[in-house]
Amino acid sequence: MTGHVLEFLGETKLELGPVGEADGNWRSARDENDVLWLVLDRVGSSVNTISEDVIRDLDAIVAKAEAEMPKALVIRSAKTAGFAAGADISSFSEMSDVGAADLLRQAHDVLDRIESLSCPTICVVHGAALGAGFEIALSCDYRIATPGASFGFPEVQLGLHPGLGGTFRLPALIGPTDAMTMMLTGKTAHTKRAKSQGIVDAVVEERHVAAAVEAAARGEIERQRPGLTSRAFGLEQARSLAARQMRSQTEKKAPKEHYPASYALIDLWEKHGDDRDAMRAGEIESFADLLGTETSKNLRRVFFLQQSLKEAGRGEDGIAHVHVIGAGAMGAEIAAMAAIKGKSLTLGDVETAPLGKAVRTAAKICEDKHLSGTEMRDALDRLMPDPKGYGLARADLVIEAASETLEVKHKIFADLKGKLKEGAILATNTSSLSIAKLAQAAPDPSRFAGLHFFNPVSRVDLVEVVAGPDTRDEVAQSLAAFCGSIGKLPALVRDYPGFVVNRTLVPYMLEAMVLMDEGLSKEVIDTAALRFGMPMGPVTLADQVGLDIGLHVAETLQGSLDTPMPAISDDLRQKVEAGHLGKKSGKGFYDWSEGSPHPSADLEGAPDDLTDRLILPMLNACVEVLRQGIARNADQVDAAMIFATGWAPFRGGPLHYAKARGIDEVTARLRALSDAHGPRFAPDPGWGDLG
Ligand SMILES: C/C=C/C(=O)SCCNC(=O)CCNC(=O)[C@H](O)C(C)(C)COP(=O)(O)OP(=O)(O)OC[C@H]1O[C@@H](n2cnc3c(N)ncnc32)[C@H](O)[C@@H]1OP(=O)(O)O
Questions:
Q1: Which residue intervals of 198-350 are DSSP H helices?
Q2: Ligand 1 proximity of 507 Cβ (cutoff 6 Å)
Q3: Known catalytic residue at 502
Q4: DSSP code at position 236
Q5: In CATH, which superfamily holds the domain spanning 317-494?
Q6: Mean of the per-residue pLDDT values for the chain?
Q7: Least packed by Cβ within 10 Å: which of 19, 397, 613, 667?
Q8: Which residue out of 464, 511, 523, 624 is catalytically annotated?
Q9: Ligand 1 centroid to residue 307 C-alpha, Å
């Protein structure tokens, strides 16, 4: 058999063992300096995940290394996608808690043995080292990163905490404060931060990896050591004090009854933070318990819902140049996101002042997204203010993000006739107008569709790609691929009042106003929704969206849907007339002049049906859009609601929640609400098809 030469990003060349030698997911070779290279290359996957067989194969290789100790051992990945994305999430659903604990014990044993090897061990990381991938890296003496590498424990987003030694190896490496923050927030550390925190010992360009490995093997790279702070936490009292603070910080975002994993991690560290063996045993037991919680099952479901949206955004979009019409808040952020992700972009507006502001917005987004100086300069170079609309003629995609009236949009479309390049796509960012009606003025209705971004565009992942009656399939596909190429999650839906997301949200906000008319305080209403798990109460949400926009969407829906909706309150109309538009004007239902409201009220004495009055109409609307064929399936509706609105992720989405609660129970409750409060609560006829 011939040797196999592996190139890393076209630079480091490494002669590996014969292809097909029984190392399974790992390939190994000793180089001329007697350094043993272990290269993770999970069979049949573009991404390395850490599965049972990956660990089993690693076990066998470590045993060989123990028998024939090399001068140094290097672990790295063969995948261009990065080092490793953590444990294989798809395997979790088949595991019992006992099975999971057994597997974890075996995996811990392998990592402990790597840690105990008498030779220097070095992990070289390019791309992401997440979860169990990061834990493998932590078991090595040194971590060498190439630019663009990142390290993190996203387990909390799956309702879990690290399970393969992360809970004690990371605190030992960088100190408990930074380590716990990293594990509790799930945030990743990119090279600069990872270096300053002491996660990595060196950051080198790929071409210098071999030299850095040699230096580490000779002990010439200085390893970072945790400072005095970590020693202070050896005292139980100090840990208890810190743990109390961590719990109260966590409580603000993730209450224990909804997100138990963070609290399990804090408890574990508080109890055993000074005893590695107890941490190890406790980590395994706690991880296995968390796997079986509904929260974790639902959050793992959310991961796969996200993957299905990503899938819809794959493929070639054929879009190099984009022209955005309208440099308001939405247009500016759409332009910024597209420019950051490499599109050439022109941005037009009837006035010049918003164009300057849009460039400043783009610069701010670049900073928020931690772009390097060069990346930011390149992104801003790609974004060209274009008041005269010269970019229209070369645009593959024109996105209209102008005022939300049919007349304005019709006029813009009429002006475009004869100015667009052959084959260009025209999309509108309308949130409420009918795509069919807008298409009447489009130069080519077959190349016209809705591209509904959510505010703030730079932070909300979902985009509704709305096909009108004449939109060609390949146009919708191109738009979905465009969304994917700028880092967004597309939901391909059909034209309908409010599409999927606003159709579902409007009753939530309007019912809150009916409740206020009935005398309930906005704080009580918002608190009830927050306790259910919504990221924002309906009154705060209405203020955040803008009361003028909310009113407009509500009126559009009321005028075009057969289904009864809550009445639009006089208070809402009066506030809009008085210019109290919510967050953007500093005052709406809440006073925003001193920052965002944080409603928190005692629910004692609140009506028993308060939460159901807010939540069940959303479920009913989800069933309606499904029955009408607006969304493709129940999972797509759930994904759209979670990734557009942050709909209680730990419940797995509105329709998943309905099924878990029981369809008979939900429809009976809707009937009772309908009897008590009016036909707007009557169950949709589609419930029977949900199964
Ligand atoms: C005891 C230990 C516990 C743990 O380790 S728990 C797991 C912790 N890890 C995570 O939660 C990471 C989850 N993955 C991600 O966040 C993202 O993915 C990445 C940042 C790693 C990459 O994102 P992007 O570049 O956008 O690629 P993509 O389309 O999301 O993923 C490519 C393919 O890889 C699969 N995949 C990624 N991570 C995992 C995983 N951890 N388990 C199972 N599959 C995974 C996806 O599904 C997809 O697959 P397809 O190409 O077939 O659509």
A1: 209-217, 228-232, 236-253, 260-272, 276-291, 294-312, 329-340
A2: no
A3: yes
A4: H
A5: NAD(P)-binding Rossmann-like Domain (3.40.50.720)
A6: 93
A7: 19
A8: 464
A9: 9
**Beta strands, E only, 376-525:** 383-385, 397-400, 425-428, 448-453, 462-467, 489-494
| Distance in Å, CA 664 to ligand 1 centroid | 36
| Token pair in block for residue 331 | 């247009």
* Strand locations in 410-496 (E): 425-428, 448-453, 462-467, 489-494
Bridge partners, residue 124, by sequence: 144
The reported pLDDT for the residue numbered 227 is 58
CB of 400 closer than 6 A to ligand 1?
A: no
pLDDT digits (tens, 9 = 90+) for 626-648: 999 999 999 999 999 999 999 99
Structure tokens at 639: 């994904």
Q: Is the CB of 165 under 6 A from ligand 1?
A: no
Instruction: Say what the pTM is.
Output: 0.94
Express each pLDDT in 306-341 by its tens digit: 999 999 999 999 999 999 999 999 999 999 999 999
Indicate whether residue 159 lines ligand 1 (CB < 6 A): no
**Ligand 1 atom with the shortest distance to the CA of 132:** 5
Question: Considering only CA atoms, which residue is closest to atom 28 of ligand 1?
Answer: 307
* Residue 89 beta carbon below 6 angstroms from any ligand 1 atom: yes
Q: Confirm or reject: Cβ of 279 under 6 Å from ligand 1.
A: no
| Residue 96: exposure state from Cβ atoms within 10 A (0-12, 13-18, ≥19) | exposed
Task: Give the residue whose CA is nearest to atom 30 of ligand 1.
Answer: 307
Report domain extents, the chain: 4-292, 317-494, 501-690
Whether 464 is catalytic: yes
Q: What is the complex's ipTM, to 2 decimals?
A: 0.98
For domain 4-292, the question of CATH label 3.30.420.40 is answered with: no
Residue 133 and residue 143 in contact, taking contact as beta carbons nearer than 8 Å: no
| 18 pLDDT tier (thresholds 50, 70, 90) | very low
C-alpha 642 to ligand 1 mean position (Å): 18
Asked if residue 616 lies in contact with residue 673, where contact means CB atoms within 8 angstroms, the answer is yes
Indicate if ligand 1 lies below 6 Å from the C-beta of 489: no
Q: Indicate the fold that domain 501-690 takes in CATH.
A: N-(1-d-carboxylethyl)-l-norvaline Dehydrogenase; domain 2 (1.10.1040)
* Ligand 1 atom with the shortest distance to the CA of 81: 25
